[in-house]
Design goal:
Blueprint lengths: L14 H4 L3 E5 L8 H11 L3 E5 L12 H15 L2 E5 L21 H21 L4 E3 L10 H22 L3 E3 L10 H11 L5 E6 H7 L4 H8 L3 E6 L1 E3 L2 E5 L8 H10 L5 E4 L8 H15 L19
Parallel strand pairs: 1-2, 1-10, 2-3, 4-5, 5-6, 6-7, 7-10
Antiparallel strand pairs: 8-9
């Protein structure tokens, strides 16, 4: 397979030349591949970037040589022409017995500090890689914890991460996750209010989650979230069932969703999120990009802007 050369700020391959959106694939869906093999695969397939989950099998955020490995990875991404966003949803990276534990909501302050520490490392990695965002989520409210206490813990645990993100110039993009304290876009606004609407607090919007439980249809959800959108994940899903599905296996009508996303002017990556399909990751990576390109709106003709009006420079 031949490498796609770097083609400027929008990434590698022929994607940016023919589509206004930039598509990536998450490494949590390529967990059986070595990281370099996964990156080479995505570049060969024509993806614009990668959603990099910090985990033991790829870029271990707890490794002693993290800084050196991150510098090498930055060079590799540059060579391949891949953009990147940093994701922090590894299941057992902090605790081998508790999925996604400890969380930002745990009763033990030292446990919450461990999760905060992971996010601080993620900000450092993102700054070194030139990532467009650092993703995170709230976690599930522990048993016996009232809602007011949970929101207070979340705001306090994220405060130093937001300070670090502001210093690094990298947005922190919180994901509403079904079953978590912060489960909806409305909950994201609750957090914004609690933190005083900090500039570097943004939103990760998972399109499947919109189909699963948001009150608005996915395309309307995109439009409503647009001012705070810093990262996008995408997969198919059914209403009321939190199961990430390959495209075509769920209920989402993707052309209106991608049209709405393109209309917002969103410049980050839209990352395929299929963590339960790593057993066939290369197959789904190869299958997903053509689907998204067919569903995406065509770019405006040369010399016009996104609205179709002639550009002032032509």
């Amino acid at each position: 397979m031949s490498r796609h050369p770097k083609q400027g700020p929008n990434g590698a391959g022929d994607g940016p030349a023919t589509h206004p959106l930039r598509f990536g694939y998450g490494t949590n869906g390529l967990a059986d591949l070595r990281l370099d093999d996964a990156l080479a695969l995505l570049a060969d397939l024509g993806y614009d970037g990668v959603g990099l989950t910090l985990d033991h099998m790829h870029l271990d955020p707890l490794a002693d040589d993290l800084a050196a490995r991150t510098r090498r990875l930055a060079r590799r991404l540059d060579t391949l022409g891949l953009g990147v966003t940093v994701e922090t949803g590894a299941r057992y990276v902090l605790d081998p017995r508790r999925k996604h534990g400890p969380s930002l909501l745990d009763p033990d302050p030292q446990d919450r500090a461990r999760r905060t520490g992971l996010l601080l490392r993620a900000v450092d990695v993102a700054a070194e890689l030139g990532a467009h965002a650092v993703h995170c989520f709230s976690g599930v409210t522990p048993g016996g914890t009232d809602e007011d206490t949970a929101w207070k813990r979340l705001a306090e645990a994220l405060a130093p991460v937001l300070d670090a993100a502001a210093s690094a110039g990298v947005p922190l993009a919180v994901e509403p996750e079904p079953g978590h304290l912060l489960a909806t876009v409305a909950d994201f606004h609750t957090l914004r209010g609690a933190l005083g609407d900090p500039e570097h607090l943004g939103l990760t919007l998972d399109i499947g989650h919109c189909q699963c439980l948001e009150p608005l249809p996915p395309a309307d959800c995109v439009r409503a979230a647009a001012p705070w959108l810093r990262h996008v994940q995408i997969e198919d899903m059914r209403r009321g069932v939190h199961e990430h599905l390959p495209f075509g296996d769920g209920e989402i009508d993707f052309p209106p969703v991608l049209e709405a996303l393109a209309a917002t002017g969103y410049q980050g990556l839209t990352v395929v999120e299929l963590p339960r399909h790593s057993h066939a990751g290369p197959h789904y990576a190869e299958r997903s990009l053509p689907f998204l390109r067919r569903a995406a709106p065509a770019p405006p003709p040369p010399g016009t802007n996104r609205s179709g009006e002639p550009s002032a420079t032509h």
